[in-house]
Amino acid sequence: MPRLYRRALCSPVGYSRLRKIHTMLTYEQARNKVIEEVGKRKGPRATAAVSVWDALGLVLAQEVKTDREYPPFNRSTRDGYAVRSSEAVPDAQLKCVGEIKAGDTVRDVLTSGTCLQIMTGAAVPEGADAVVMIEYTSRENDVVRFERAAHQGQNIVPRGSEAAAAQAMLKPGMRLGYAELALAAQVGAVQLQCAQRPRVAILSTGDEVVLIDETPGPFQIRNSNSVSLAAQVRIAGGEPVILGNAPDRIEDLGAKIERGLKEDALVLSGGVSMGKYDLVENVLKAMGAEFLFDAVAIRPGKPAVFGVCQGKPVFGLPGNPVSTMVTFELFVAPAIDLLSGAEPRSLPLVEARLAEALKEKSGLAHFLPARVEWRGTVPEVKALKWQGSGDIAALAKANCFLVVPADRENIEVGERVSILLRKDVV
Ligand code: AMP
Ligand code: MG
Prior knowledge:
Number of strands: 30
Largest sheet: 6 strands, mixed
Radius of gyration: 30 Å
Bound molecules: adenosine monophosphate, magnesium ion
Mean pLDDT: 94
Strand order of the largest sheet: 8-5-7-6-10-9
Structural class: alpha/beta
Strand content: 25-35%
Shape: elongated
């Protein structure tokens, strides 16, 4: 252990100087601090070539351009008849002289007085300027009768109207979802240069915590936080690095934190409250951490801490499981976006109608486990019964958090409230 921080922690003077600093921010301010601070450290990331089959959720580190115009030919969007629009007037009859299937090479030129049967996705022949849907025609042998007037360009997507040749379609920093991957595949970009997932060290703390495959003693608990955090890191686009649990002892914490600082970011759970054995903040401080906040006006999650230690973003999340989950979503997720080379995604906040009246203490913004249902036109939300921030079972029934602003106490049925969606289940 570095001498400096042993000395800082062992000296009673040093210890008292390292008490919480209490810069209490709103959650929006705290989130902005994270974004600002981690944003400064964005820098170029290591990249790797990844197959489109495996690149879901990764952040692109290259430009992807079209290999040709899109669509590459005038494409029919309907099954019907390719016509000259001036000839396909109500009750007109045109001779059908052939058919064009999707994929067919089209050489025919449509001549006056005729039409060609055409399928969705097929190339519209030269001479035709409209496709009439088969539903608006009737046919007897070769003769097609038209019920309605066609107009120029109807049911045709012109060549090059979706994209020009060599047009940049995907840019560095874009996150690859299913549509982006399909676009890459469409233009033949089957290998994509992507930012490597930031490695996020996960360290739980607490003398009461045992590994999940151990049998806890009567007053011990299993390390569920490392499991929820690993899942949240994955969803946020990071690579979790599980460091296990550190007991509430300076030396153990110091050694594990030191290991965690080798990764791109470190997330700790527990040990950031005001208890005698809540040592995380002090150990971090002794290791050189600068804190940007160490309290947020939210419940659960008030003692959350964010700082930078040896150049790495470090989050000290309160150990109560629901607090850990909420504070991760608010503060850690945007940092993972930035460390991936992407802009931080906004919080998935949605407006809903309150279905059951609420009474909460004012002063802190509350994030209550809740269920939203989309029955009518406006989503309806109800807070679930819970036993506070240790109640994982309540959260496992929830699909969102109901956000009660800090200045509200009573909210009536029918009022509009904000809900924070659980991205993993909604
Ligand atoms: P702390 O923030 O360290 O005061 O922890 C608050 C409470 O959270 C503890 O008393 C435990 O009940 C719970 N807790 C702490 N760490 C974990 C963990 N890794 N997994 C599940 N629960 C935890
Ligand atoms: Mg603890």
